[in-house]
Amino acid sequence: MQKAERLPQDQAEAQRALALPFEAEALLAGLRPWVECESPTFDAEAVNRMMSLAARDLAILGARIERIPGRMGYGDCVRARFPHPDGEMEGGILVLAHLDTVHPVGTLGALPWRVEGERAYGPGICDMKGGTFLALQAMAAMQQAGICTRRPVSFLLTSDEEVGSPSTRDVIEAEAARHEVVLVPEPARPDGGVVTGRYAIARFNLRTTGRPSHAGAALSDGRSAIREMCRQILAIEAMTTEAATFSVGVLQGGRWVNCVATHCDAEALSMAKRQEDLDHAVGRMLALQSGAGDVTLEVRRGVTRPVWEPDGGTMGLYRTAQRLASQLGFEIGHESAGGGSDGNFTGAMGVPTLDGLGVRGGGIHTLQEHLLIDSLVPRARLFAGLLASV
Q1: Which of 34-57 are b and which e, b meaning 16 or more Cβ less than 10 Å from the residue's Cβ?
Q2: Class in CATH terms, 200-305
Q3: Mind listing the pLDDT tens digit for each residue in 215-227?
Q4: Where in the chain are the domains?
Q5: Which of 63, 78, 118, 269 allows an S-S link to 58, with CB 3.0 to 4.6 Å?
Q6: Cα 182 from Cα 189, distance rounded (Å)
Q7: What is the layout of strands, in order, in the sheet containing 370-372?
Q8: Terminal CA-to-CA distance of the chain, rounded, Å?
Q9: How many Å apart are CA 114 and CA 370, to the nearest integer?
């Protein structure tokens, strides 16, 4: 389909978007049900409950909802397309966000929704339900005020970002290819800045296999898979340099304390600013060998996020955001960031992508996860201004 010729958006519309009457208390009230709908990646039913909640909110705004069935054991995705005078032509804005979190069901017991001073707490509130909800509310406020977005807008809400998007990368890339701009409401940088690039990330699955024996009666007959994996972990993390980092975040081994462990499994991650450095890191990981001849080591490469380096299109988006923020009375910087997002995929494709447009906060992935309440209104207005401008 041919992309239509476009006239510059009336600057008055953008100015109206920047002045939309958001209220922090109302935004918090609307966000609370999202945060209290726990949605850990590995619980597909829980993620799907969250998808249904978000889909209902989007449908109320008039979006056409499509449910994309999950696969590989992960939850569904939701695609929402908003009506626009130009129709559902190619060249629109894609709001790309995930609704899965790292917090297991039951985390609300240790991290309940609560407001304390200038902070609101809850699982996934900063990464990234807060920013996703603000993007939705920006659309709602613009519709109520009769402000038209510059291009047709679609939302794609995914279910497995926290584990590298193994089941949704193809959907993300196919959808991004149909759009001209991608906006990602991941958390803002600590200083409120946005993200114009992200480091490359590779994941690995490791397994050591030893020889079992009775740990009490015949300890010396056994060869511990756990012991060898511990050696490997120390070696892996010692490979960290300025060019690439290595870390191990998951370790599982053994079944009985009185048995020498036959198997031990681990998950490792390497991150690098440049693709060539990540490629070298991948080679080092795949070359690992067991230090004990009677214990085997298997290393399998998992999900990889490509490096995303800013180009002219992305920097053009940043300059627009910088101008809008200045009109709102604050300044935003930009940077390439560690910690992957689905913006890695769209940015690496060459689709102009602006990330880190969500809320300010901290404690991400911990029992102290929170957002800063005073960031809600300015970030919602900034997002609305972008929808009216880009």
Answers
A1: bbebbbbbbbbebbbebbebbbeb
A2: alpha beta
A3: 999 999 999 999 9
A4: 11-199+307-389, 200-305
A5: 63
A6: 18
A7: 114-116, 119-121, 370-372, 361-362
A8: 20
A9: 9
What is the rounded CA–CA span in Å between residue 139 and residue 99?
18
Shortest CA distance to 346 belongs to which of 198, 229, 220, 140? 198
Residue with tokens 């509310």: 137
CATH topology of domain 11-199+307-389: Aminopeptidase (3.40.630)
Token pair for 129: 């339900």
Q: What is the largest CA-CA distance in the chain?
A: 82
pLDDT single digits (tens) 82-104: 998 887 666 799 999 999 999 99
Token output for 343: 């913006």
DSSP letters along 94-159, please? EEEEE--BSSPTTGGGTS--EEETTEEE-TTIIIIIHHHHHHHHHHHHHHHHTPPPSS-EEEEEES
| Distance separating alpha carbons of residues 348 and 67, to the nearest angstrom | 26
Helix/strand/coil for 71: coil
- Vertex 70, ends 69 and 72: CA angle to 5°? 145
Residues with Cβ within 8 Å of 91's Cβ and at least 6 positions away in sequence, in order, are 3, 4, 151, 152, 179, 180
Assigned token pair, 84: 């626009």
